[in-house]
Amino acid sequence: MDPFAQFAVIAARAASADAAIEWTPRLQERTAVITGSCIGGQSSQDASFYNLYHAGRPNVHPLTIPRAMANAGACHITMEFGITGPSYTISTACSSSAYAIGQAFWMVRSGAADMAVTGGSEAPFSVGFLKAWDGLRVVSDDTCRPFSKNRRGMILGEGAAMLVLERRSAAVARGAHIWAEIVGFGMSSDASHITRPSPEGAAQAMRRALADANISSDAIGYINAHGTGTIANDAMESKAIRMVFEGHTDRLAVSSTKSMHGHALGAASAIEAAATVIALRDGILPPTVNYLEPDPECALDVVPNHSRATQVEYAMSNSFAFGGMNAVLVFAADRSTRVAEISNLLRHARGLPLATRVRA
Q1: What range does the domain containing 66 cover?
Q2: Could you give phi then psi for residue 127, rounded to 5 degrees?
Q3: Annotated catalytic residue: which of 38, 75, 94, 144?
Q4: Element containing residue 13 per DSSP (H, E)
Q5: Residue 346, in any domain of the structure
Q6: Looking at the domain assignment, is residue 354 inside a domain?
């Protein structure tokens, strides 16, 4: 397997183990595997072409195609667990895994699948691909500083994150570990420019996600931003957030975890979805690190440089990709956690000791 597929399988193993899934024949038939990847097995393809064009070897490795194909990660996950339900890979540049998670969410919610293993993986660290990104002049020459006035571009990352989605009633019935709830998904197309993002398109995706979740914009307490650290993207996203949240914007925490894990392309939104879920579970908002100076065009509370202990009920994760492919996910703290928080507030109001927060 190419490293990107290895990442996918390892993350899926961890997610399956955490969810304590018993893979019965019925569940294998009723589970979907939907993954996202921007480039697939880039390092395998790069190595084969190097040997062909530079080293002058007459043939390439016989497994180049099975290793390089973007759906290899999803394929190996199905074989790992014997899953025979729907399986496919979405490639929408840097929003690929947000589209995958959103589609998986809708499939489970509609009853098309009982469970889904979904997320994304990417392994872009090959010389040719790194040079291609450098050619776009969007890669920082020092580090990634999202929303900072002196930001100089993105830094590439790689890895994977996988989620297990199922109806809450099913998870509760089998005593599964519930990290959070996914409650909304929205998507849109800019239809304007291949690399320059549009605030109108991003805002439309956020509004659609809120509508799908059936909540108001005021309910959101935290946004995990697309936040690439490029001049154009961060200013655009800041404008789009203000278009959607209006007066609530100044009460929002908005951070970019790309400042820590880099831009993992097709895997980025899966990694960021996991970060958002952990923030909801633990009541700790991740920071935007490397932040040095405010930018008037990015006038947001970006949780600069240090994490923040704040419990929020609803959080949003933004993904805005080249080609104007926008996807937004909305998550909620697991309701057992929310009930415990309310109980703690009531106890505190009555002068009683705070109860230990419950996590299902």
Answers
A1: 3-340
A2: -60, -45
A3: 94
A4: helix 3-18
A5: no
A6: no
177 is catalytic: no
pLDDT score of 355: 34
CB 267 within 8 A of CB 122: yes
226 is catalytic: yes
**Residues sharing a CB contact under 8 Å with residue 129, sequence separation 6 or more, in sequence order:** 39, 42, 43, 46
Number of structural domains, the chain? Answer: 1
3-state SS, residue 223: strand
E strand or H helix at 131, and its extent?
A: helix 127-135
54 catalytic, yes or no?
A: no
Decide: residue 349, CB within 10 A, 0-12 exposed, 13-18 middle, 19+ buried: exposed
- The span from the CA of 49 to the CA of 64, in Å, is 10
What pLDDT was estimated at residue 186? 98
Active-site residue (options: 76, 144, 261, 263): 263
Q: 3-state class of 330 per DSSP?
A: strand
CATH number of the structural domain spanning residue 304: 3.40.47.10
Q: What is the Cα–Cα distance from 38 to 51, expressed in whole angstroms? A: 24
Structure tokens at 106: 């809708």
- The CA–CA distances, whole Å, from 313 to 248, 320, 335, 336 equal 15, 24, 9, 12
With respect to residue 289, please indicate whether it lies within any of the assigned structural domains. Answer: yes
CA end-to-end distance (rounded Å), the chain: 35
Query: Tokens 């009555």 correspond to what residue?
Result: 350
Query: From the candidates 38, 76, 144, 226, which is the catalytic residue?
Result: 226
Beta-strand ranges (E) seen in 37-158 are 87-90, 115-122
- Grouped pLDDT means (10 residues each) for the chain, 360 residues: 97 97 98 97 87 88 92 98 98 97 98 98 90 93 97 96 97 94 98 95 98 98 98 97 98 98 97 98 98 97 98 98 97 76 50 35
Question: Is 351 inside any structural domain?
Answer: no
